[in-house]
Amino acid sequence: MSQTNVTNPIAEKRLGFTITLHLFLLVGASSFPEGSFFFWLAITLGVEALIVFRVLTMWNRYKYDTKRYYSIQAYWMLIGFSIYTTLPLVRISYGTIVFWPLLIGTVLLFSLGHLLKERIGEVFVNPRKLKELVMWPTALAGIVLIGILVMAVLRFQSVHPNVGIAVFLYMLGGFSIFLANPFSLPEDRIEKLKGD
Predict the structure, then answer these.
(1) Which of 1, 2, 35, 182 has its CA 20 to 30 Å from the CA of residue 44?
(2) Looking at 5-14, 100-109, 168-177, which range is the least confident one?
(3) Is 19 helix (H, G, I), strand (E, B) or coil?
């Protein structure tokens, strides 16, 4: 059978899990701190609509290249996770002296994750980078432990009652920014990184 007669399978959209995860997170991100829930819900739903639109356009473009589409879909799922988990701390800090540095730092964090995507991607695909690869689960475990400690300490301080969970979510969101960006690399670039 010739190569031209073989049809490539069409990628499944697989949006159910991504949308469910994002809806759960965006309702939480819109809920606290308390006040102006519907205002923030409208904003976060708008962001989600843009993410879903982007995933659907990528499906339309890469529906016959299943590996590429699933990689891009994972990228957008993790970017949405990052947005919705960093938002509560930024919202809690609004009106304080911390707000602008935190907002600028968050934008820089997203930019840095994008700028380092090839170096991070190389860690995941290059067999010679095993030592760096082992650091990722260790870093995640450290973030979880530090986050739990921060939540416990801030629970007994005279701060907003949700600051602890907001800091913990922010740390998870920051981690997932760096985890998400290598998924946006094209397959030919990934293959090149395997050999570098």
Answers:
(1) 182
(2) 5-14
(3) helix
186 φ, ψ (degrees, to nearest 5): -70, 160
DSSP string, 38-102: HHHHHHHHHHHHHHHHHHHHHHHHHTT-HHHHHHHHHHHHHHHHHHHHHHHHHHHHTTSTTHHHH
pLDDT higher than threshold 50 for residue 4? no
Altogether, the residues listed in the chain come to a count of 196
Angle, to 10 degrees, between the axis of helix 66-93 and the axis of helix 15-31? Answer: 10
Distance CA 73, CA 110 (A): 18
Considering the entire predicted model, what is its pTM?
Answer: 0.86
Q: State the residue for tokens 């380092």.
A: 116
* 110: nearest Cα among 39, 48, 170: 170
